[in-house]
Structure prediction request, 598 residues.
Amino acid sequence: MTYDVIIRDGLWFDGTGNAPLTRTLGIRDGVVATVAAGALDETGCPEVVDAAGKWVVPGFIDVHTHYDAEVLLDPGLRESVRHGVTTVLLGNCSLSTVYANSEDAADLFSRVEAVPREFVLGALRDNQTWSTPAEYIEAIDALPLGPNVSSLLGHSDLRTAVLGLDRATDDTVRPTEAELAKMAKLLDEALEAGMLGMSGMDAAIDKLDGDRFRSRALPSTFATWRERRKLIAVLRHRGRILQSAPDVDNPVSALLFFLASSRIFNRRKGVRMSMLVSADAKSMPLAVHVFGLGTRVLNKLLGSQVRFQHLPVPFELYSDGIDLPVFEEFGAGTAALHLRDQLQRNELLADRSYRRSFRREFDRIKLGPSLWHRDFHDAVIVECPDKSLIGKSFGAIADERGLHPLDAFLDVLVDNGERNVRWTTIVANHRPNQLNKLAAEPSVHMGFSDAGAHLRNMAFYNFGLRLLKRARDADRAGQPFLSIERAVYRLTGELAEWFGIGAGTLRQGDRADFAVIDPTHLDESVDGYHEEAVPYYGGLRRMVNRNDATVVATGVGGTVVFRGGQFGGQFRDGYGQNVKSGRYLRAGELGAALSRSA
Prediction:
């Protein structure tokens, strides 16, 4: 009996939360054919992975990515796969590229996700051959995919297709009954084709790109709850999921999602919801103490099925000048980001009346809910033409100069060229004890990496490895907060169950998506970030993670696609170009069935 791949003598985690066992796995035809306590015959096997002393886990699932354009340019999605991710979910935050034309989709996507519009538009213009969800799925599945892909239909995409982008972002427009019916019909077509559900957005912080309707909020944010309920009814009928984000400025918004999810108020058929976001935010330090309990209580009282996505690492952000989404919280910030011309933007930032307005807004909004702590003493310069400022916080510079912190910040940007000043801050998940509690909290699930977006702001592609490191380190220190097997489950099988994805487990008969991890290299290398030029984004230097000694191998569909090592990782020949390992995973298909039909 010949195997295509043998993974020998590894500590095997099956993705269900069961305790690990030392086993050898034999893989054939894309499926885990054998899980053996002893040796397997390696005769004729072209690929043997020596996993002695290593962990063998199901490939990680990343449920919150924005690879919608990038998958068309680089179907290998290397920045995720090299860290053991084998399945990614597209179409989050109301943004997908299914129905909207290429120009509308680029305007919806680019500024929100901080990916240069010219490359998003080019990717869609050159590759958009579809006009229906079924055709979209066929087009994605025809790519030489590295990982598996599933997707949601974005509400902003849907709304734009029915109303047009102008009407979809006009607060005075209410869809007609015929238009609401058309939205429901198009959503149902997407679910019928195999999409997992719909994504929405209720927080108006994100803005459109382009010239036509620049700086308007996303279409999904203009929807009334009457419109949302009509679309959620389609999800309920199909048993599919909603991903969305409540409006942080309106606490009632979150309660409405719980009610819409409820079985009690909806003929005993609820809707699973994955919401943004559960974090220990510096701007709201007390919220973390009640967030999990509150979610569990509401789910129980209302019969709801709501979970919040949690990124299980410190939320460290970088920014070139003001190119950071948190500045969209301010009208003054949006006004500056509205200007793409660098000279015009610098002139605005230097203008005294603009600064007075910005200061008033900055100080006033700071008292309410916020995604950012707005503490310039906690914002450190890491790159600047004036080398004497590197390593200093803007707050410290303000103290030295006797200025308001916002003025010191703007002075440094104007004096050095706004985009020449790079700085960093941690906005959430900064307290280890609270971070550990969140990782074990049953009302959250692991996600929110934003992989493929915010290319100059963050790099959380390896968040799964970082969670495993923290769990392992805590166990060694005698202060466990999450067993390794439970951590693996939270990154794999649990997500597959909640989202309805045919992946996440590594048992006999399952699709063979896996990662082999060297726990001795779960070290400081997983916590850093690097920069790498992206050729298909015009050489833009993207933030990435590099810990290639940690992942010994990543396998997708029964094929080893990445081999790690201390001297760098290597992908198989033709990977992401003319060799296909992943596929589009439709809703409701089982992992084993997918494997056998691949």
The radius of gyration is 24 Å. The CA atoms of residues 433 and 481 lie 9 Å apart. The longest strand covers residues 5-12.
